[in-house]
Specification:
By secondary structure, the chain is of the alpha/beta class. 36% of the residues lie in helices and 15% in strands. Bound molecules: pyridoxal-5'-phosphate.
């Protein structure tokens, strides 16, 4: 037996010990330019990569991390990822991944009802979830066009392009939501995509539009997990959609790549995107071929935290966003783009000359920028329950004072 393929407790313990070491960014990337002829061994590789990998990454759970939709991940998911990598199951083959397949089915069965859906499957992200849903829409409802708002994620236009469907973009209103008055009247050949939590602004499209088109897909990549929280009613109407996409690697705190595509009628939707193969015991559903056991990390998190544990963390993130919103709204040097709807705060100094100066003073990873209708804005995303909002506010105040 080649021992590289068995459990090396010392090596794995060392990997864990290295995680709590403080590597500075300065250590740089010391890698051979050419593919090495001879290996240095696993332990040496581990030690040589630690400063690069562990020191060269943003820490998404640190106090000022408030810029992007990428959350810190709970340690139980690290353990599951380790097990997954060692087992390397392929959910394409029921015979070799019997339990992993059931785990994915169970996690889907736990989550789908929050969205009024009856099933679905996991994908590596909502980009693929959106593509899969619109592929089903084309097969099941014969749609020839995809309609979404100007605030929709680029993956919607990308999916329409791949599927050979026309793409129509509808203007947004002042809050960043789809302006329903600008929709075409005949939606009988259209898949209407409503965004729950636009990437730039967090805006939620009007859900009274669900059901008006031949197929309604809700892109809930960001804010979908609010359905498990006290904010569930902000997405009322989602339960009437034909399909829903949710990124678990955003507000369900999962390591990438983890997302769900859910369907109202999964039997029909899956049948429309299934292919058989001589070597396959069951048909291959959806876009992916080989498919890993990502579900186990999500299942473990939900088992560890329960719905309440997820809800508390999302609600806490919403509180952090609310505190930042209140600060911006009460400082007359600043303006807010619109009332935050799903934990994303978009704001800027009223005086555009201060924009770059303030940005330079803010810690890397604390604030991102976005462009809306040609205007530049700062954007904060409440994906980190450990963020220290007082510290961030103090930092913004200091940056303004310097200007
Ligand atoms: C992030 C995001 C996506 C894409 O999801 P990935 O998981 O990054 O592929 C799609 N739609 C919205 C609204 C998003 O915020």
């Amino acid at each position: 037996m080649d021992k590289e393929f068995s459990v090396d407790s010392d090596g794995l313990h060392q990997a864990v010990d290295l995680m709590s070491r403080d590597f500075s960014y300065a250590e740089g990337l010391h890698l051979p330019i050419e593919l090495p002829q001879l290996g240095i061994g696993s332990t040496a590789a581990l030690n040589s990569l630690a400063p690069n990998i562990l020191g060269g990454a943003a820490r998404l759970g640190e106090a000022t991390s408030f810029a992007h939709m990428d959350p810190p991940t709970p340690w139980i998911t690290w353990a599951m990822t380790l097990w997954n990598a060692s087992l390397n199951q392929n959910l394409l083959h029921p015979a070799t991944a019997p339990v992993a397949r059931q785990m994915e089915q169970r996690v889907i069965a736990w989550l789908a009802p929050f969205f009024g859906m009856d099933g679905g499957h996991m994908t590596p992200g909502s980009t693929v979830a959106n593509l899969t849903a619109l592929w089903s829409a084309r097969e099941c409802a014969g749609v020839t066009q995809v309609i979404a708002s100007d605030g929709a994620h680029l993956s919607i236009a990308k999916a329409a392009h791949i599927l050979g469907l026309k793409y129509l973009s509808v203007p947004i209103d002042a809050s960043g939501s789809m302006d329903a008055a600008q929709l075409p009247t005949d939606l009988s050949k259209s898949a209407l995509v409503l965004t729950a939590g636009a990437t730039s602004t967090g805006a939620i499209d009007p859900f009274d539009l669900v059901g008006r088109a031949a197929w309604t897909h809700v892109d809930a990549a960001w804010s979908g997990p609010m359905r498990l929280s006290g904010y569930a009613n902000l997405l009322t109407g989602i339960e009437l959609a034909d399909s829903v996409a949710v990124s678990a690697h955003k507000w369900l705190f999962q390591p990438k790549e983890s997302a769900l595509v859910l369907f109202k009628d999964t039997g029909k939707a899956h049948a429309a995107v299934s292919f058989g193969g001589a070597y396959l015991a069951t048909p291959n559903v959806g876009v992916l071929g080989s498919h890993g056991a990502t579900a186990t990390a999500l299942l473990a998190t939900l088992l560890a935290w329960g719905r309440e544990g997820v809800a508390q963390r999302i609600e806490h993130c919403m509180d952090l966003a609310r505190r930042l919103r209140d600060f911006v709204a009460n400082d007359e040097r600043l303006e807010i783009y619109a009332e935050p709807q799903s934990g994303i705060v978009v704001w800027r100094p009223k005086d555009d000359r201060l924009f770059d100066q303030v940005l330079q003073q803010l810690p890397v990873g604390s604030t991102s920028t976005t462009s809306i209708a040609g205007g530049r804005w700062f954007r904060n995303v409440a994906a980190n329950p450990s963020a220290d909002i007082d510290l961030l506010i103090a930092t913004i105040q200091k940056a303004l004072a310097v200007c």
